[in-house]
Amino acid sequence: MLPMEKKVTPPEERGYSGFYHKEGDRIVCELCRHYCKLKEGQVGICGVNKNEGGRLKTLVYGKVSALNIDPIEKKPLYHFLPASFALSLGTVGCNFQCPFCQNWQISQTKDLSGSYDVTPEQIVALALEKGCKSIAYTYNEPTIFYPFARDVALLAKEHGIKNVFVSNGLETPEVIEDMKGIIDGFNIDIKGFNPEYYKKTLKGSLEGVLDTLKRLKEGGFWVECTTLIVPGDNDSDEELGKIANFIAKELDPYTPWHISAFHPDYKVNDKLPTPLETLKRAERIGKEAGLAYIYMGNVPEDGITYCPGCGLELIVRRGYHVTKNILENGHCPACHRAIEGVWA
């Protein structure tokens, strides 16, 4: 990686970044763990990072395809500024090829015709105008547009706005190191625990995702995990147990685990939606592994945070809305245990 100051990129340089190194007549992109080796004019697996004149250019810098104000609970992040709103943005492209992607219209395309030009300054101004406490980089994989997200996040930090990534977890060690002091929280997908499934079906790397998760925890970032449970793909007791045990033992038992129901989409229309009983079985498996905070998603079940110390009901979420929150400065009001999360 080329030396980079933690300053917003000047307008004349936007789109170019130092997240690459040279290897012969190619450059090696360092934004994700594919480490694409690009000849002049060549674009990486994600479809949006290009070797232009021997430099890495992010073609989606400032090209926003989706922009919404969402409850932070929708990301989902349950232990991060509850009941607040996040200005959520995405571009196009992805470094995975999940056949069940629910945002495939933007993640599985390189077409920028439906995008519109927005500067980092405009994004932050909008977040301030709308009272958003955070900016979420989401919808498609944010790692592939990190040079854009980085500039937005640096400006946001100047105004006290936090930044969160909703990601498949293929960030490189180089990017993770740079994110320190810039990105505050993550929701990382653990889409299964079978390396071949990751490689052949998703076109990703389980080993890379697990390493990212460990690095994020070691780096002091707030982390929550999500598993979309797809019938027949990752819903066995064995696989769910491996995911839960990894979180409990390699991260910590207080890392929230979101277990979400699949619904048919994109190329996968031959499976039924995930039964509620499957989610409840996953919840039991997570509890057996020692996880303290487990939440079901995409089903009509309340998301309740209980105190791991005394069992008191602390936060109740109905859908994406918080209906109860009795935390006192991040602590249980009964036993005064500190509850893991980012509360202010």
Automatic annotation (TrEMBL):
SMART domains with a match to the protein in the record: Elp3
Cofactor note: Binds 1 [4Fe-4S] cluster. The cluster is coordinated with 3 cysteines and an exchangeable S-adenosyl-L-methionine.
Gene Ontology MF annotations: 4 iron, 4 sulfur cluster binding; catalytic activity; metal ion binding
Pfam families: Radical_SAM (PF04055)
Keywords recorded for this protein, A-Z: 4Fe-4S, Iron, Iron-sulfur, Metal-binding, S-adenosyl-L-methionine
Domain of life: Bacteria
Radical SAM core domain location: 79-292
Names of the cofactor(s): [4Fe-4S] cluster
SUPFAM superfamilies given in the database record: Radical SAM enzymes (SSF102114)
Binding residues for [4Fe-4S] cluster: C94, C98, C101
Protein name per UniProt: Radical SAM domain protein
